[in-house]
Amino acid sequence: MKLPRREFMHLAASAASLPIMSHFAWALDYPSRPIHMIVGLAAGGPTDVTARIIAQWLSERMGKQFPVENRTGAGGSLATQAVINAPPDGYTLLFAGPTVTIGASLYRKLSNVLEELTPISGVMHFPNLLVVAPSLPVNTVSEFIDYAKSHPGQLSMASSGVGASPHLTGEYFKYMAQVDMVHVPYRGSAAAYPDLISGKVHVLFDNLSGPVLELVRGGKLRALGVTTAQRWPLVPTIPAIAETVPGYEINVWYGIFAPRETPMEIVTVLHTAVKDALADRKIVARFAEDGGIPMMMPRNELAKFVADDRSKWHKIAEIVGITPE
After folding, report:
1. How many other C-beta atoms can be found within 10 angstroms of the C-beta atom of residue 176?
2. Residue 316 has what DSSP assignment?
3. Are 98 and 165 in contact (CB under 8 A)?
4. Do 275 and 237 fall within a single domain?
C-alpha cells in the first residue's frame, strides 16, 4: 500500500524522534531497565562530571535512565572490581580512565583487570594541569621548580587520592624535576580545592576541567603547565611542562567498560550510542568547556590503547619507586 506523502512524512518524523536503537536492541529488548554507570572517584570531580554528561545524553536518547553511582576507594579499584563482579548483562557499566590501567599496575589482585573487562568506547582525552596556590611566589614551571628545590620537603602536593592519575602525575613530576614535596591525598580533587586556594596545601596536579579553569580565570589558583608533550589546543596560553622538563608527558582519558562476557550485541548497541553522543555538537562543545576532546576510535583500537596505557603507568610506577601491593 502506498502511503500519502503527508502521512509518510508524519511517520518518518515520528521514527526520527524515537530513542536511538539498533536492530540488535529491538531484538534483545535492550535496554529494558536503568543502566547503572559506576564511577570510582568522588562526586563533583572531573571524572564524575563527564560521566554525568554522557549518562544524561544516553538517558535521553536510549529511553532509559543511566544513574551514576560513585564508589570511591583504592584509587578507583573498588568500582572496577564491582563492575567485574556484576552480571554481564549490559546493565552495569564502568566509567573510568587511567584508574583502570593504573590499578592493573599497582595492585596485584587487579593485575588481570583488563582481561575481565570489555571496552565499550573511549569518551574524552585531555591533559592534567599543574596549579598552585596564589600565595606561592611563582609564575612559571621553572620558578616553581627553583622554589621547591630551595624549600625541600616544605611544599604539600595534594591529590585526588592515592594511586589516581593526579597522584602519579605529581610523583612523576617530582622524579623528573628532582624536587621533594609531601603528598597529601584527599577523597577526590573537589575536596582539595578549598585547602589549595587558602594555601594550606601548595600544589595540585588535576584533570583539566571547567571548574579548575574557572578558579584559574578568577584568580583563585594559578595554572603553570599542562602535562601533554605540547601545549593543549583548547588552552594554548598555558605552557606544556615539557617545555621546562624535557620528556615529561602524561595524557589522560575517559572510557566506558562492561564485564568481560557481556554479549557482543549489547556491546555494539552501547558503542554505537556513545559514538553518536561524541558526534553531537552539543557534547563536543560541552567537553571543550572542560578542556577535553572527544575520544573516538574503533573498539579494537581502544583495546590496544588501553593495553599500551597500562604499560606506560607500570613504567612510571617503577620509575618513581612505587611497588605493586
Report:
1. 19
2. H
3. yes
4. no
Other residues' Cβ atoms within 10 Å of the Cβ of residue 60: 13
- Would 84 be classed as within a structural domain? yes
The amino acid at residue 42 is A
DSSP H or E run through 151:
none
Shared domain for 147 and 215, answered yes or no, is yes
Same domain, 202 and 54: no
Cut 0.85: pTM above it = no
C-alpha 191/C-alpha 43 separation (Å) is 10
Tell me: do 146 and 112 sit in the same domain: no
Domain that holds residue 135: 127-243
> What span, in angstroms and rounded, lies between the C-alpha atoms of 186 and 190?
9
Q: Residues 223, 238: contact at Cβ < 8 Å?
A: yes
pLDDT tens by residue, 216-228: 999 999 999 999 9
- Distance between CA 215 and CA 217 in Å, rounded? 6
Give 37's contacts (C-beta < 8 A, 6+ positions apart): 51, 54, 55, 66, 67, 68, 69, 93, 94, 95, 256
Distance in angstroms (rounded) separating the CA atoms of residues 182 and 6: 71
Instruction: Write the DSSP symbol of residue 107.
Output: -
Structural domain tally of the chain? 2
Q: Which of 243, 261, 291 is the last residue of a domain?
A: 243
Strand intervals (E) in the chain: 36-39, 68-70, 92-96, 117-132, 155-159, 181-185, 203-207, 222-226, 251-259, 293-294
What string of DSSP letters covers 247-288?
T---EEEEEEEEETT--HHHHHHHHHHHHHHHT-HHHHHHHH
Q: Are 233 and 240 in contact (CB under 8 A)?
A: no
> What CATH number is attached to the domain comprising 216?
3.40.190.10
Same domain, 114 and 67: yes
Query: What tens digit of pLDDT does each residue of 87-133 get?
Result: 999 999 999 988 889 888 887 777 778 889 999 999 999 999 999 99
Q: What is the DSSP letter of 188?
A: S
